[in-house]
Amino acid sequence: MPAAEPSSSEVQFSGPVHLAVDVGASSGRVIAGGVNDGRLELVETGRFVNRPLKVQDAMLWNHLQLWQDIQDGLRDAALRAQSSWTQATIASVGVDTWGVSFGFVDPRDQIAGPVWHYRDARHRGMADKICEIVPRETIFEETGMQFMDINSLCQLIAAKQNGDSVFETAESFLMMGDLFHWLLSGERSIEASNASTTQLLNPATQSWSTKLLDGFGLPHKWFAEPTPAGTTIGNVQSSVAIETGLHDVPVILPATHDTASAVLAVPAEGFAPASPDWCYISSGTWSLMGVEIPQPNVSPLCAELNFTNEGGVRGSTRLLQNIGGLWIYQQIRAALDRQGDAPSWAEMTQAAAGAEPFALLVNPDDPALVAPDNMIDAICGLAGRTGQRVPTDNGVLFRGALEGLALRYRMCLQHLESLTQSHIKTIHIVGGGSLNALLCQMTADACGRCVVAGPVEATAIGNILMQMIGSGSLHSIDEARQLVRHSFPTQTYEPQLTDRWDEPAAKFATFFE
């Protein structure tokens, strides 16, 4: 989905400017942010795609192209600072990325081996296979993590079982944000929020689980002590300064997991309440739906519902569930594009709005939809297996993908309220999905809750806010969220015709039995 929020390049910063490098699973951007007249303003200085790279039968991240794209965006920011923002100073830079993916560094301070994509076929079924090595109950007790084939632990065990050379050559394990911070600064670190997505970190102690490292035979030396968001790890190293023009600029760790950064930018009142009355959906290629709470919830019910405890800023916990997100919607369009018949995003939404409601129920978490060669063929196959009419109209496909998400959110909301023993009044949707008015209204209707959509660039905003906190220009999460509320508009959607969703929701629930 497209994003639209950064201010035009005509913004004239006059104080500290912080550069957020925000790389998601399908696209990335470099955004400059600074405060003008009490409002946080944004200027985009680079945008690029993040496409998987096929090498033989392997699906890899093209991390070297991403690194080049990042440097291009930083160079543009430095040039603007010299030519247009002459009263401003670039105060810091920080990188956030998607979770679970990682790379290795060898003793020669070079990248060791390829960086595998989490959708590579060798990871399928690994969530069950790791439980044959260490009991499922032990893994959950140690990590509080949702079991998914894409988790870093599953990827590591797949690498070990495939005899990857990194087990002989690697010296350090770095999550993707940390890999780019190392390329920026020359300093190795593992930021805490992204470390929590590995399924190897104990959420209570915020340290690596030695029980799991030993149980799976993973080298302890790889895993440096996690570093909290807001830490300055050094300056941009000289080789990068020459390429980008960013001389003597500090590298400050944001919450490097993009969802942790996005949650920081939710325009809600309060920080990590014990009984939350709001939840968030970070909506993009993935949807991450959850609550911000003060402590992890590693309960039998949490394990049964397959929720996850991920690290948030300032020691908070993001109790959430990973949901397939707009991936299906995006991949339907990609399949049509390969046929030379790709509609615009606006045309897709219009066709979905005019299609028959609930003509097709699509579970966004169905394993068949994780990485099919053709998403339309995969959905047609799913329809046949679940006793539904095979869609022949593109509008039905588009609507089914969106309604499936809304129904999945409804299920997740019920589970969140059970886990927290609280009533959630408001759902905050941030990220690119907040621009899809049809999906936002469907979410309000399906869940029977008020939906507040925006800001769109929440991840980059949260990245910038954490740099501001780390540099001392902001002093608390509450102050940061107040700045968000003052700076960015939101759209409110009230629930309508909620009863219409009851029968489809009951049928949808059978997909999970």
Automatic annotation (TrEMBL):
Q: Which GO terms describe its cellular component?
A: cytosol
Query: What protein name is recorded for this chain?
Result: Rhamnulokinase
Record organism: Rhodopirellula bahusiensis
- Kinase in keyword set: yes
In the record, biological process GO terms are: glycerol metabolic process; rhamnose catabolic process
Q: Which residues form the signal peptide?
A: none
The record places domain Carbohydrate kinase FGGY N-terminal at 18-264
CDD domains, A to Z: ASKHA_NBD_FGGY_RhaB-like
A GO MF label: glycerol kinase activity
UniProtKB keywords? ATP-binding, Disulfide bond, Kinase, Nucleotide-binding, Rhamnose metabolism, Transferase
Q: Which InterPro entries match?
A: ATPase_NBD, Carb_kinase_FGGY, FGGY_C, FGGY_N, Rhamnulokinase
Q: Which family does it belong to?
A: Belongs to the FGGY kinase family.
Instruction: Keyword check for ATP-binding, yes or no.
Output: yes
